[in-house]
């Protein structure tokens, strides 16, 4: 765990990113300041890796392995998928497609054996659907007459087929099924498929199957890893070619999505998860610690950070982290995350805290403040914003309706999280009739074409005179 003063943040952050300039201002001259009284103080944290931040050897090793997998699937189809499953997964099923009857049966079994989980999943699904439907309303078709004879339009067209990748490694991400499938179906996607690795019996996790039936998936395939992404990008004898692939995964899945973008659409390349909390003097150290651990338990590479106004609160948070870790079932993972990347920053003013938050561009940004609304509008770089101490990030992860598939590794500077928009193409149209507006636009096009030296363009415009 590292504690530093806000005045030292720029130099600290810059050092994590290979000395590259920060998105704002000049880096401070001073280096990181660790409080001597911090019992858990450790070496500076490692930045959440992005592809360009990886060392060339690490990036090359991952990409080389993934490129080999992609080529194997492209040329070998189902046979390659079975061979790769035998190498990397818990089993290699002969039949890759899972009958939807198995998913419906899994849902019935879940309702019979774990009614509370089934009820929670239904509540989450309802909230996700309502929110997605509200988002869908922002996408409208229109045609407008700009001038006489000149009509421009927009259509919002869903993709025909999309895939949701659902990991089942360290934890089976049941909620990811709902977060991917429901927005796609609300968007109007014709066919939605699930890709998830097989367990020992040749089927994905039963709870993933149950969630797929509940969310309304059309087809399910017991295929995992980078090979699943490649299968959906190219199509195989069993797996249909998809227009878009969304969902989280390990570094091999992320690399496959990045390398195949263009062959297939993607949501974004996800890295390790992260949370940043801005707290004031009214904040509960115990709640801060709880929310940091909820993020840290995901993965040793997860990043849990907090901005606090005093050394006293910093020490209280650290003490509550130690106390909670001693009783946490996932303590080994969470402790590894905090040791590698836990960060407490002591700020002097909220302006300072806002500036740092906008620089970090966290996946999740929580406001543990007495009056969080007063600064919410000044925060611009985040995946999701959680306003007030009751708005725990875990609610966004599971049940509140907003999506949990969010930009990581600072990419919230330029994109938002998964939504219906990832399954919709916004396309435009032009319709012309004789009229003054058409004539002026036609002549202007010919003039611009001549200036650019594109004679064919000029002739195309002039021939309509």
Ranges where pLDDT stays below 50 over 5 or more residues in a row are 24-56
The structural class is: alpha/beta
CATH architecture of the largest domain: 3-Layer(aba) Sandwich
* Radius of gyration, whole Å: 25 Å
Strand order of the largest sheet: 1-12-11-10-13-14
**Helical proportion, percent range:** 40-55%
Number of strands: 15
User: What is the distance, rounded to the nearest whole angstrom, between the alpha carbons of the first and last residues?
Assistant: 72 Å
- The CATH homologous superfamily of the largest domain is termed Nitrogenase molybdenum iron protein domain
Rounded mean pLDDT is: 90
Large-scale geometry: globular
Q: How many independent structural domains?
A: 2
- Strand content bin: 15-25%
GO molecular function, one term: NAD binding
Binding site for Zn(2+): 295, 298, 397, 457
Keywords: Metal-binding, NAD, Oxidoreductase, Zinc
GO cellular component, one term: cytoplasm
Tags for this entry?
465 residues; alpha/beta; Rossmann fold; 6-stranded parallel sheet; 6-stranded mixed sheet; globular; metal ion binding
